[in-house]
């Protein structure tokens, strides 16, 4: 099989880079697991007998199923009474749910931006019909999911079984036995086809943890279905218990302990909470929740930013915490602990930051990676957006900002029905904000939102889901992106897309010598990280001043400093880039990039500026001056010479062409000792975008300070970038 190929030179290089990202403790810990992993490659996972599993001989599975149906000593999320309330309050959402459940009845599945896949007969859980690839029936540790012979994320998405809760809800709402029968038949077939530890579905404890949540919640919704027999319940419980052991034993550690660890712990906690009859349940719940509390403090920073520097993963991580917090809160025998408070606090501070970010009408920034993951998929929406997440966070925390910015969906509706939430406070309005730990400044003025990224590359030494976007700027007006982040592109299907969408040239910042600020070591690995230093953030003035050292590694080392001046009440934003050489070598080419939303067209004007239009109306004018000769450039995806740049990705595995515009300084000093190069860009929005704008005047100054004279919509202005 392709997954068992010998290591290619590129793979050896990747392993060497990955090893360098580990500390001594991680290297030693991973070495200790090699023997156990090698044994499981041959034998798969061992399943204990029922007596060991339950701590008693000859268990009565009919009685155990009776306790499960009655909700004895455990929390219940999906029940018939709540189903009636949800259906009455959200008829349109329920209509969409039933349509999704009907597609599942026909074995039709759609993941990411891929076309629909159809299994005309029984579902083959190892077969990807889109790629026409069947993953091998080997011990999971022996499968190389990076071998390039299939799309692992597609097959993992199918095997997360997140469609089963749709069928369970459809059964509860309609009483149509077909939904419940199909769900239980699929689960039975899945268990038979995927013994613990074998096959692609068990490749990684993270997949096991996310799947456990789906199966447990679906089983609760199907508890009173006649097709749920004691023997079927036994098989499901045994599978879930095997998964719980896998989640703890193979949990992500050290430099890999990002959202994957949260998913593994959340799955373990869910099994412990919802199956209290298991002998290990109390320990699993305790260990998982204690570890989750620690991760909540690490992965949701004190200012509410996700440590991975990826908005999509922040939502995913917060929702995994929310699943556990919710189950503990619904558990009739549970007394709140400090760990519960820690989980809720993390959900709340994350929601506070996300509400600051999207306000009451702004688009969601697509910073960093996003693989469209769901912690619990009750609503059939194809993507878990920020606003429905905020509605869930509002129900759990009562945060007015989350309630004001959130949009209720089926997930928040079920949770509200079970918790009896009545808090309707919405006394919050978005404003300026600065998150110093995560490194994001939000500058608002009327209908305009400006974002300035002054944060780190990503989380831990590999920064797996970060992009090389230090000092990037985003601009949205009237709820529409003008300048933004082009998104993720692809993970495995199109490696060239992945490289391009992570690169500096794909972001609204500056590339020196067309290089990346940080160094890619692999598709989910950065081997060198640019470090950002924030000099000043003045929200009242709408000013951000920061620099990064990512280009010090170049043969001609450079420090990039950026000042963003977005005065309140002014339609014009000034961005001043100062590129300072730190050696004697001539400066290489310096390029500014402004990725424009795909809905925008561009044209040039007589004064050399770029005008971007939506539906024919000017919405953005880009005017550039520099301290050295500069020329404008533009490209669009698919144009000759554009390569993989000039594309915008709204969904994973999908992209559409957009305009990248900017300026390039080819010669910043020639043979003489190079001086700093200053590039000043006016980004004119609102009504002012329709009128010609005077070019900014750059004055490097003999005292080392840079002065830029420019004209805003309210008159002449001057911006000073101090020396040092």
UniProtKB/TrEMBL annotation:
Domain Heparin-sulfate lyase N-terminal stretches: 99-317
GO MF annotation: an example: lyase activity
Protein name per Swiss-Prot or TrEMBL: Alginate lyase family protein
InterPro entries: Chondroitin_lyas, Hepar_II_III_C, Hepar_II_III_N
Superkingdom to which the source organism belongs: Bacteria
Species annotation: Actinomycetospora flava
Presence of keyword Ligase: no
UniProt keyword Signal present: yes
A Pfam family reported for this protein in Swiss-Prot or TrEMBL: Hepar_II_III_C
Ranges for domain Heparinase II/III-like C-terminal: 432-653
Compartment(s) of residence: Periplasm
Keyword annotations from UniProtKB, A to Z: Lyase, Periplasm, Signal
């Amino acid at each position: 099989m392709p997954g068992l190929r010998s290591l290619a030179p590129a793979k050896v290089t990747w392993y060497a880079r990955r090893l360098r990202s580990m500390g001594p403790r991680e290297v030693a810990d991973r070495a200790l697991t090699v023997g156990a992993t090698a044994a499981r490659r041959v034998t798969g996972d061992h399943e204990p007998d029922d007596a060991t599993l339950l701590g008693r001989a000859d268990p009565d599975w009919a009685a155990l199923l009776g306790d499960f149906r009655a909700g004895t000593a455990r929390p219940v999320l999906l029940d018939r009474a709540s189903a009636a309330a949800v259906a009455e309050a959200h008829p349109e959402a329920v209509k969409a749910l039933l349509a999704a459940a009907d597609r599942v009845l026909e074995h039709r599945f759609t993941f990411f931006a891929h076309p629909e896949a159809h299994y005309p007969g029984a579902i083959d859980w190892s077969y990807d019909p889109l790629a026409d690839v069947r993953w091998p029936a080997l011990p999971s540790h022996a499968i190389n999911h990076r071998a390039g012979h299939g799309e692992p994320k597609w097959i993992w998405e199918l095997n997360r079984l997140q469609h089963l809760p749709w069928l369970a809800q459809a059964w509860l709402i309609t009483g149509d036995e077909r939904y419940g029968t199909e769900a239980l038949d699929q689960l039975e077939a899945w268990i038979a086809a995927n013994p613990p530890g074998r096959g692609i579905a068990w490749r990684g404890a993270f997949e096991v943890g996310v799947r456990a949540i789906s199966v447990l919640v679906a089983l609760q919704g199907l508890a009173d279905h006649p097709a749920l027999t004691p023997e079927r319940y036994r098989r499901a419980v045994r599978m879930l218990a095997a998964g719980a052991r896998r989640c703890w034993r193979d949990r992500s550690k050290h430099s890999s302990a990002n959202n994957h660890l949260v998913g593994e712990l959340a799955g373990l906690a869910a099994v412990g909470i919802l199956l209290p009859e298991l002998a290990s349940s109390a320990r699993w719940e305790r260990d998982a929740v204690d570890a989750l509390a620690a991760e909540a403090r690490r992965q949701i920073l004190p200012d509410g930013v996700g440590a991975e520097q990826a908005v999509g993963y922040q939502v995913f991580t917060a929702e995994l915490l929310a699943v556990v917090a919710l189950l503990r809160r619904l558990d009739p025998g549970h007394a709140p602990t400090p760990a519960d408070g820690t989980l809720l606090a993390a959900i709340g501070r994350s929601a506070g930051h996300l509400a600051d970010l999207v306000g009451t009408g702004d688009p969601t920034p697509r910073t960093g990676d996003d693989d469209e993951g769901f912690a619990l998929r009750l609503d059939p929406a194809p993507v878990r957006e920020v606003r429905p997440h905020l509605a869930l966070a509002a129900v759990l925390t009562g945060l007015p900002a989350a309630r004001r910015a959130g949009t209720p969906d089926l997930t928040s509706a079920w949770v509200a029905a079970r918790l009896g939430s009545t808090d309707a406070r919405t006394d919050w309005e978005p404003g300026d904000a600065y998150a110093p730990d995560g490194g994001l400044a939000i500058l608002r003025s009327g209908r305009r939102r400006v974002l300035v990224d002054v944060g780190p590359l990503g989380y831990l030494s590999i920064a797996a889901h970060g992009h090389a976007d230090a000092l990037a700027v985003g601009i949205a007006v009237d709820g529409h992106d003008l300048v933004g982040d082009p998104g993720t592109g692809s993970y495995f299907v199109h490696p060239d897309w992945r490289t391009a969408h992570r690169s500096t040239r794909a972001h609204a910042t500056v590339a020196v010598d067309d290089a990346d600020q940080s160094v890619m070591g692999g598709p989910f690995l950065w081997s060198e990280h640019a470090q950002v230093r924030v000099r000043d953030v003045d929200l009242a003035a709408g000013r951000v001043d920061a620099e990064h050292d990512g280009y010090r590694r170049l043969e001609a080392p450079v420090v990039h400093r950026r000042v963003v001046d977005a005065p309140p009440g002014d339609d014009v934003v000034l961005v001043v880039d100062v590129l300072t050489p730190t050696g004697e070598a001539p400066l290489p080419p310096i390029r500014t990039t402004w990725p424009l939303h795909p809905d925008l067209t561009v044209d040039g004007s007589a004064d050399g500026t770029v005008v971007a239009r939506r539906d024919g109306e000017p919405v953005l004018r880009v005017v550039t001056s520099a301290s050295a000769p500069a020329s404008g450039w533009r490209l669009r995806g698919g144009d000759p010479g554009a390569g993989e740049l000039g594309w915008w990705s709204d969904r994973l595995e999908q992209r559409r062409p957009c305009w990248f515009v900017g300026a390039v300084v080819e010669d910043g000093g020639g043979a003489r000792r190079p001086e700093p190069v200053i590039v000043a860009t006016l980004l004119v929005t609102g009504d002012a975008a329709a009128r010609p704008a005077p070019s900014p005047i750059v004055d490097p100054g003999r005292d080392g300070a840079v002065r830029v004279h420019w004209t805003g919509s309210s008159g002449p202005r001057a911006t000073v970038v101090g020396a040092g």
